[in-house]
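User: I'm putting together notes for a lab meeting next week and I want to include a structural view of one of the chains we've been expressing. I don't have a solved structure, so I'd like a prediction I can at least talk through. The sequence is below, exactly as it appears in our construct file.
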Amino acid sequence: MSGQQAVVVGGGIVGCTTAMLLRQHGWQVTVVERNIIAAQTSGEASWAGAGIIFPLLPWFYQDAVNQLALEGARLYPALADQLYQATGIDPECLRSGMRIQPPFELEAALAWCRANQVEAKLQGDELWLPEVLQVRNPRLLQALKAWLVQHQVTLKEQTQLLPLPEVEIGQQGTLKRWQTNTGETLEADIFIVTSGAWSFDLLKQTALSLEIKPMRGQMLLYQLSKPVSSHIIYRDGFYMVPRKDGYLLAGSTLEDVGFDTGVTDAMRAEMQTKAETILPQLKDAPVIKHWSGLRPGTPHNIPTIGQHPHIGNLYLNTGHFRYGVTMAPASGKRLIELIDKI
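Assistant: Thanks for the context. Below is the predicted structure for the 342-residue chain, given as structure tokens.
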């Protein structure tokens, strides 16, 4: 594919991972991002999430979700090591394990773990999954950005593509060019939309069946003088994720509020109550940050990975909902394999 041009629309973890794989396959790549890649002020899901590399309560999900998530988890240690060696930025891919506390369906959980070769142990009334990984989202994204710059990937930040109208499509069903909000026109052999919650607005005139909408998740960050847990804890839709430098993430909410990236005092108080119920040691611990991100909500958490239904050189890798970080290496790999076949 040497010399062929690819434009990746969206500079989150899915987009940057896709761009990395394209570059490794010989493509000349441009990434277009509406904000600043790896900035921690944008309200986007890639840096805002907890970085749990495992589907939460996977026995409730369809096989398509779990297969992508487990494949992504298998790929993460090598990806994180490659990025660390190349950039000096440690994504902190840690095998911290996860404790699932009641209530949960014990028999369904154990049956799923056996069927998927996931190590699981009962410890009291908790389910202990010792192999579960975590990554530190902001550092992963910083490492991906640094790798892309090192490998001559063009980054067009603070740039938006205009929604794609039918008139831009050539007679042969190909997309020749795509205009930005700055008046620039981008030309490429292929275009790949990885813009998460914003994907539908870009494509709604040409892919009406694309079911993606923003779902807000609010998070808290605690700063602790000494660790109160060395592993991820999950209870009844709420999780706690310890970082190795003493910080602890707690979250998150699931809110259908459109593109509102604000935070609310009511949700902060609710999350603090849940966190302190799970770990009473947090009662006097300071909350040093409260933020939100917009997940690309989709039915059943199933992403869209493949060709546009009518435009032969337009591809989608989007709609990962809660598991974009988890699935990113696997969904990028699958997309590249599809492109290579065509």
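A couple of points you could mention at the meeting. The two ends are 12 Å apart (CA to CA). The longest strand covers residues 213-223.

User: Perfect, that's what I needed.
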